[in-house]
């Protein structure tokens, strides 16, 4: 197997053994995916993160801390690792804290069994796994936080094209969907996203979405537009 064909190294951080074992078994049957371990705690995640990781499927509530804490530790060691939170949106503060920790996407546990293989490959390819219903929840929470204060954040102005890309990200569109809408190539889109992240001083597309909604760089999605997940 060449470098370009290397297997995707996946770590589970999940304290529910049955769920972790079931998802790990599903991924283990895929020829391009290698499950390197299952951590039940933040401490175990830090130990397993000593080896290279490509994708991490992360629970939020762990016996000795939170998935956000584990995400920070993993991102500090492997900045290129993609962390996907596998959790329930009813967990208060989960969304924003995980974004700030560097999470790259979300997947709900009730859909994990049918989506985990696709989610791992999409995350590895650089996609932001962000269902529109999650975006609506982010919009609601950042609006509430914004209403509690009058903070302002000055950023370098985005170009009209960058605003179009950012708006598409907040709609939860995938890379192919954005490219089709804006008639641009994936490499061009990647450049726009990198420029957006640099100007907003954020570290992931997910964080860029939260920033855009918090500071009203784009209009938030309406609850009625959300797609059930």
What is shown here, in short?
The protein is α/β, with parallel strands linked by helices and 229 residues long. The protein has helices spanning 17-28, 42-48, 67-77, 94-101, 109-124, 132-147, 160-170, 175-182, 186-200, 205-214; strands at 8-13, 33-39, 55-58, 61-62, 65-66, 82-87, 105-108.
The CATH class of the largest domain: Alpha Beta
SSE order: EHEHEEEHEHEHHHHHH
β-strand number: 7
* Annotated CATH topology of the largest domain: Rossmann fold
Give the low-pLDDT segments.
224-229
How would you sum up this structure, described in words?
The protein has 229 residues and is α/β, with parallel strands linked by helices. It folds into two domains: 3-129, Response regulator (Rossmann fold, 3-Layer(aba) Sandwich), CATH 3.40.50; 136-224, Rossmann fold. Helices cover 50% and strands 14% of the residues. The chain has ten helices and seven strands. The chain has helices at 17-28, 42-48, 67-77, 94-101, 109-124, 132-147, 160-170, 175-182, 186-200, 205-214; strands at residues 8-13, 33-39, 55-58, 61-62, 65-66, 82-87, 105-108. Strands 2-1-3-6-7 form a five-stranded parallel β-sheet, with helices on both faces. A two-stranded antiparallel ribbon has the order 4-5. 39% of the residues are buried.
Topology readout:
Elements: E1 8-13, H1 17-28, E2 33-39, H2 42-48, E3 55-58, E4 61-62, E5 65-66, H3 67-77, E6 82-87, H4 94-101, E7 105-108, H5 109-124, H6 132-147, H7 160-170, H8 175-182, H9 186-200, H10 205-214
Parallel strand pairs: 1-2, 1-3, 3-6, 6-7
Antiparallel strand pairs: 4-5
Helix pairs in contact: 1-5, 2-3, 3-4, 6-10, 7-9, 7-10
């Amino acid at each position: 197997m060449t470098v370009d064909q290397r297997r995707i190294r996946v770590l589970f951080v999940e304290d529910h053994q049955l769920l972790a074992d079931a998802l790990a078994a599903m991924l283990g049957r895929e020829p391009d995916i290698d499950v390197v371990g299952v951590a039940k705690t933040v401490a175990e995640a830090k130990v397993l993160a000593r080896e290279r990781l490509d994708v991490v499927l992360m629970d939020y509530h762990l016996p000795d801390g939170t998935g956000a804490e584990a995400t920070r530790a993993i991102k500090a060691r492997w900045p290129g690792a993609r962390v996907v939170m596998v959790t329930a949106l009813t967990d208060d503060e989960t969304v924003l804290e995980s974004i700030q920790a560097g999470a790259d996407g979300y997947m709900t546990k009730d859909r994990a069994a049918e989506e985990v293989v696709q989610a791992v490959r999409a995350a590895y390819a650089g996609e932001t796994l962000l269902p529109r219903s999650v975006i609506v929840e982010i919009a609601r929470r950042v609006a509430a936080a914004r209403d509690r204060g009058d903070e302002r954040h000055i950023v370098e102005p985005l170009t009209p094209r960058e605003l179009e890309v950012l708006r598409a990200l907040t709609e939860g569109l995938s890379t192919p969907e954005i490219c089709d809408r804006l008639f641009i190539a994936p490499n061009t889109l990647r450049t726009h996203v990198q420029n957006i992240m640099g100007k907003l001083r954020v570290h992931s597309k997910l964080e860029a979405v939260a920033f855009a909604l918090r500071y009203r760089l784009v209009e938030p999605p309406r609850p009625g537009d959300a797609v059930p997940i």
